[in-house]
Design goal:
The chain is α/β, with parallel strands linked by helices. Helix content is 43%, strand content 19%. Strand 7, helix 11 and strand 8 form a beta-alpha-beta unit. The radius of gyration is 20 Å and the shape is globular. Bound molecules: S-adenosylmethionine.
Length: 283
């Protein structure tokens, strides 16, 4: 385990690197996180000290060390249908409304983005709901391939897991009622459960940093950006929601995490109570 108490500057140097890489600011009070999550990576890198470690991360052409640092310093907590209520609103109101736009021929494609999607439970929860709506007849006449779902995250490790669509016994049990497990997952080696190809193929995963220009992703009817802005400072949050507003179509929806709100952007979004849950609607 790397001993951060030897040089008082080490923590500041690492913390600055992480903040520049992904905008997550971790101060002295998070010393235990650096120790627990980076200790082994620092030891294995062969760096002589922390400035050397950061030099290596910046110089490495493959970006592998940088990715390892980001993978380990970001928090990937996620689960199926997280917070339950807003997912009921998606199922009962927002997704059927989007379906109607396809049924009426007003649109030929609906685009949905899960920004900071972690290991994929969030965008796959959307795909599962669309399947349910289709089998209940709510999306009659609509081909599910007309829904384009994109998930992105900064962490390559989580994206790898998301693309595989394979989950441990614990992950599958978090938030996922048995109905879904029985009908849309195959039991696979190592006591894991793998999403059936028809669900996996509905979601495309990309590596993206929320600091990047998002406009080249195109425009979306629904954007989920949940439980990530809580890690950012106010000025970056403001900038992020300005940029997210640019990729949401007029009347499109933004879904935040259960503890998040967007009072600063009333000129861009109106808040809307959809069957008991708050969504933000692009003006
Ligand atoms: C706590 S998880 C939230 C996952 C999911 N949205 C949910 O609510 O269940 C936060 C995710 O944000 C990602 N993340 C953190 N900083 C990021 C950044 N600057 N750009 C893109 N993704 C980022 C992390 O890698 C992590 O997977």
């Amino acid at each position: 385990m790397f001993d951060f108490s030897k040089n008082p500057n080490d923590l500041g140097i690492l913390s600055q690197y992480v903040a520049q890489a992904c905008c997550i600011h971790l101060g002295e009070e998070k010393r235990y996180l650096f120790e627990a999550r980076l200790g082994k990576i620092i030891a294995e890198s062969g760096a002589v000290d922390i400035p050397d470690f950061i030099r290596m991360a910046k110089a490495e052409a493959t970006g592998r060390l940088r990715d390892k640092i980001i993978d380990s310093m970001t928090t990937h907590e996620t689960y199926w249908f997280r917070d339950t209520r807003p997912w009921e609103s998606l199922e009962n109101a927002i997704l059927p409304e989007l379906g109607k736009l396809l049924q009426s021929g007003k649109k030929s494609r609906i685009r949905i983005l899960s920004a900071a999607c972690s290991t994929g439970q969030e965008p796959y929860s959307i795909a599962l709901l669309l399947h349910k709506l289709k089998s209940s007849g709510m999306l009659d006449g609509v081909n599910l391939s007309s829904f384009e779902i994109t998930g992105f995250d900064i962490s390559p490790g989580t994206l790898f897991l998301a693309s595989a669509g394979r989950y441990s016994q614990l992950e599958i049990s978090r938030g996922l009622p048995d109905y879904w497990k029985t009908n849309f997952f195959d039991s696979t080696l190592g006591n894991t459960w793998t999403l059936k190809p028809e669900i996996r193929s509905m979601v495309t995963f990309k590596k993206r940093n929320l600091q990047d220009d998002l406009s080249n992703l195109g425009l979306f009817d629904l954007v989920l950006c949940r439980n990530v802005a809580i890690y950012f400072k106010e000025d970056f949050k403001k900038d992020l929601f300005n940029r997210l507003a640019q990729v949401i179509l007029p009347n499109g929806h933004l879904m935040l995490g259960g503890t998040e709100s967007l009072f600063t952007h009333q000129h861009l979004f109106s808040s809307e109570n959809v069957s008991g849950s708050f969504f933000y609607k692009r003006k």
